[in-house]
Amino acid sequence: xxxxxxxxxxxxxxxxxxxxxxxxxxxxxxxxxxxxxxxxxxxxxxxxxxxxxxxxxxxxxxxxxxxxxxxxxxxxxxxxxxxxxxxxxxxxxxxxxxxxxxxxxxxxxxxxxxxxxxxxxxxxxxxxxxxxxxxxxxxxxxxxxxxxxxxxxxxxxxxxxxxxxxxxxxxxxxxxxxxxxxxxxxxxxxxxxxxxxxxxxxxxxxxxxxxxxxxxxxxxxxxxxxxxxxxxxxxxxxxxxxxxxxxxxxxxxxxxxxxxxxxxxxxxxxxxxxxxxxxxxxxxxxxxxxxxxxxxxxxxxxxxxxxxxxxxxxxxxxxxxxxxxxxxxxxxxxxxxxxxxxxxxxxxxxxxxxxxxxxxxxxxxxxxxxxxxxxxxxxxxxxxxxxxxxxxxxxxxxxxxxxxxxxxxxxxxxxxxxxxxxxxxxxxxxxxxxxxxxxxxxxxxxxxxxxxxxxxxxxxxxxxxxxxxxxxxxxxxxxxxxxxxxxxxxxxxxxxxxxxxxxxxxxxxxxxxxxxxxxxxxxxxxxxxxxxxxxxxxxxxxxxxxxxxxxxxxxxxxxxxxxxxxxxxxxxxxxxxxxxxx
Amino acid sequence: xxxxxxxxxxxxxxxxxxxxxxxxxxxxxxxxxxxxxxxxxxxxxxxxxxxxxxxxxxxxxxxxxxxxxxxxxxxxxxxxxxxxxxxxxxxxxxxxxxxxxxxxxxxxxxxxxxxxxxxxxxxxxxxxxxxxxxxxxxxxxxxxxxxxxxxxxxxxxxxxxxxxxxxxxxxxxxxxxxxxxxxxxxxxxxxxxxxxxxxxxxxxxxxxxxxxxxxxxxxxxxxxxxxxxxxxxxxxxxxxxxxxxxxxxxxxxxxxxxxxxxxxxxxxxxxxxxxxxxxxxxxxxxxxxxxxxxxxxxxxxxxxxxxxxxxxxxxxxxxxxxxxxxxxxxxxxxxxxxxxxxxxxxxxxxxxxxxxxx
Lengths: 582, 358
What we know:
Strand content of chain B: 15-25%
Distance between the termini of chain B: 43 Å
Number of helices of chain B: 12
Distance between the termini of chain A: 30 Å
CATH superfamily of chain B: Aldolase class I
Structural class of chain A: alpha/beta
Shape of chain B: globular
Oligomer: heterodimer
CATH architecture of the largest domain in chain A: Alpha-Beta Barrel
Shape of chain A: globular
């Protein structure tokens, strides 16, 4: 059982942790100074040391270096004793299992760095085998250049070994690569030891700089995780070494691993500045839910419009002009890279109002193909009598390809630019004679569209069949026919937060629910992992979850994924919004 | 003599696993060898109890090591150099000796005072070298002063050694002890005997008025740099304390083909020892009452013991010099910046983080 490590915050597979020694350490971090090594069993039999709470004791181990055959690992893997004080067990991807220790030391790291495929396979296999609330230590490999990627993959604990060794070899390490000290004309750093200048700067200074830079990089990584923006950093920083770029690309291929760890919503904005942004879980998940869960409930022509830099789109000047011309006679969907297609009801839903992209008017083939695929799937799952494409010239590459693929014709209304008087008049003219939909219909459809997106296809009707909406967009309240509140819309994320009545509706519906089974207590404020007996696999950070136990029924927002809830023995699993005793 | 023998000794699942893996790895090798050609012959100079002598060194092709056929040692590729399928005939063995003698005549002025015979197995194992062949070979070299024959401790027997002593040859048995630490010999090297067996073999040699030269292996797989230094120092000390063992030849591992070590090396899990580690052990054991020599094969290459690439030849020269003089002041002559890196590795490398540097 994990006792001396706790996950505090998550950003994808990366975490902010607390190594709870006598003096606690916030991870990802260097742990050289707090390690006690009980010794290798290859050279002698070892007894378990007395240990203490000041240090993390690496239990007697047999390290298996890279390339150790599986048979040898199986035959020589020692039993791990169950110890009270903080301990770590040495494992490989093959031998990793729940040993009840607080941390796990992954052996053979030197064979992994530089090899993206082996690295990703090893980290994913190990993380999936050890408890989610235990720390993962990758010894002997961290550098200022690679540590952000290592943390992003899910490693928590590091040491200065590699940074020091490289320093003794005359390699000057920075987050953007390593340089021969004797080939540098000046020192690109202002750390204490570098301030002396390059003339007297020797290898001892170099290793000091390397360690200081590694520490600074780890602080940057921790800040990024807290902000929920490590990926945005990596898409730039990892470019400096090919294997690091290959590593985060390969991790994107491990979609299940990343998806389980990626939150449903975030405060932070996504920086859409590289081709890999399209591969992010947040982007893929939105596209998947819009095309598979969402259903348009308006009986109106579809009006495709370009996105705007201002978010939400409807706050922008251009969309204001479009809306004046459309005047509730068409259903608006914005086309955008990297999100794809955003129906008007979901314009607040993460990440539709949480990204900023590089706008040049030039689309890459990858971007075009992505939006084409999403729009094609969107039009296949939603029937519109007409499609009006009110888009500028650079969007035509997308719309025309979709027309070709679906063998249908769109109506084009833009002359020169979408906001010219002529274009707007064309748009208005295209909708002439169409009925205007009512405000109430609009509000109902927002609630139901978000419900589909958040809970699953059909949730809009299943949970909100008899709907009355109160208050003003975007702070809508959803009540049932009798006026009891079921949910409230959260404008920052464009999701719904349920009341107990809403939660009951949900679990009584046919829509898949995210249930957490808890023990005999009444949760207040939050539910801790040890109180959880079982949790639905599909739960993600930020999801609405329903708690059921012998003494209580509650609803809240998850801080952990379902698998993490079920397998953790420490940490806050979920906030609780409403609770009732049974 | 001791209980264990290569056929019956199965030391639990660790040894099963090692043997299974090594058999598989060795099976990838499809080279074969002629039975009437010795594997290798060369002439070098050795520090012996009678001083520094020229040595005719012969690696006989005898069908190879029985243990290696079962799987064998994790670092040893010499089985690959033996004849397929077992025994070499008496005539072929003597033909190999003749070839070696021809080579000596062609390349050396006069006969070497010492002859060393290795087999990549056990010269004293009669299934490898029958008594008849052993006696004939002893006779063939009766004109020399000293002879060294390689054997596992199981086969060291005063009667067999007598064949050489009767020719008036000062005789040493070369035993591949690898390390005095049983745990390392068993689990890392996958060699089946115990240090006690080595002690017994030394006693047999002493009874035949012969000596023993122990061969140690610096850095089997799974050990960190500092662990291997510690292991070698204590092994030299323990060998020196055994009566009859007058010389220790401590040899750094080189990455041989078709071995488990090679597999680790390919995957980034093995680095041969630093030459500084060899120096460290020689320096630390210089005062021991035993001659310590080292022959770093393949020094300076990735597959052999190496430092940074700048200083390898200089350090190797110092080691060779030490071999003949046994004076550790030879090492004060060599310095290099990479000593700091080696020092850092010794300080920090663990069995779970090796190799920490290339």
